[in-house]
Amino acid sequence: MLEITKIRENKDEIIAALKVRNFDADKSIQEVLRLDNEWRSAKGELDGLAAEANKLTKEIGDLYKSGQADKANEVKAKSAALKANEPVLKDKVAALAEEINAILYLIPNVPNKIVPPGNADTDNVVEMEHGTKPSLPKNALPHWELAKKYDIIDFELGVKVTGAGFPFYLGKGARLQRALINFFLDHARDAGYKEVIPPLLVNEESGRGTGQLPDKEGQMYHTPTDDFYLIPTSEVPLTNIYRDVIVKESDFPIKLTAYTPCFRREAGSYGSDVRGLNRLHQFDKVEIVRIEHPDRSYQALEEMVNHVEELLKALELPYRKLRLCGGDLGFTSALTYDLEVYSAAQDKWLEVSSVSNFETFQANRLKLRYKDADKKSVLAHTLNGSALALPRILAALLENNQTENGINIPKVLVPYTGFECI
RNA sequence: GGAGAGUUGGCAGAGUGGUCGAAUGCACUAGUCUUGAAAACUAGCGUACCGCAAGGUACCGAGAGUUCGAAUCUCUCACUCUCCGCCA
What we know:
This protein has helices at 4-19, 26-65, 69-83, 86-105, 143-149, 155-161, 172-190, 204-209, 235-240, 297-314, 361-366, 390-400, 414-417; strands spanning 125-130, 153-154, 168-169, 194-196, 201-202, 222-223, 228-230, 246-248, 254-263, 282-292, 319-323, 335-343, 348-359, 369-371, 377-379, 381-389, 402-403, 406-407. It is an alpha+beta fold. Strand 14 and strand 15 form a beta hairpin.
């Protein structure tokens, strides 16, 4: 969430910037500032009262020590009278703080200056396109048909055992999946990311830390008996490693990577978007996460996008890079680049990576800070990106590389798969 | 699942209801000494909020209670550890 101190100082800029994402913050910000003023004066009053009471308490202690019990009783009466109001005031301060937080929780991150205005994904800016769309054989099939033809993914079996959106990968399909994971992880390691295997279930605090809760409550699977959430992305456990942590400035850059399955309920999705591998409830993803010094976070963002582009180039997939518009920008993000691969048989661009800088928006909830040269605690910047999400990569690979004689595996993967063709 | 023990500052660890934001040790930072380092010595060393500042307030797992006053007493909850059982 946004920092109240920044809202105090830059109210107008923030309101103006939030318009880019079609968020009218005027009322809520005015309200927050009004409540904040009220809170500060109530807090001052309460602190003063407590200071007075603390003084009397000391007096009583001294009087008892010097054996003046009767005088002590007089002061006791004074103290009691003074404190009569305290609970009311205390409640008021707590209530105001809660109100302020409740509003702050609902205000999205301030978009970066270069975020284009817009309402929907059609307003995203295509920054560049790389590679050429393949020309497919006449009777080219979409990946779900190919999956059946070569018996490498079984969607119906998933329905039987679990439900829609939980496919089985079989034989070479499973091997290819594992090959991609290893290829991605090796690449991340070479780029200096530390590999992590995190828990797949997290507690509520972690969900709040990275901002999935409370806004996306319904998107996560929840285990009511133990009150855990299944991770929708490894961003959640990885970034929460640094919840309530004050790092040293010399620790930067902090670079983590993890392969995990991801679980998403995807309530309300339907139609051709969810066909085959396009949208699943459980899917595999390799994620890269960075904790950065505020001065370096945008350079880090560029590095991360380049990293993802290298992967796509190595896989010989046609892709394009989008700068998300205000309307499509995630709640917690200040700037996001999406990378989409072209899946030829579907004739669709599929989002395979989303790389974001959250600046201090997550760090503020996480209380993730570093000590600067003056030994002051300053909020760090957090970033993350998919590198990459597996199913749509698989879809594009299958569709784009199909031939009459089978499906060709990109050269870079062959050492990982052990076969060149499906 | 059963039984027990515990939760204090970066870590270890003390703490009789008032002098405790909290001993001590280690770690860390700066200085002295040294050709340099180590050792030794000296000093500093939690977090957050309010305030221009002086200063003030809060925090000893969380929440509530007793009291003029709670790290210390009472209650509720959460978590951790140990042993036993079960198990990949």
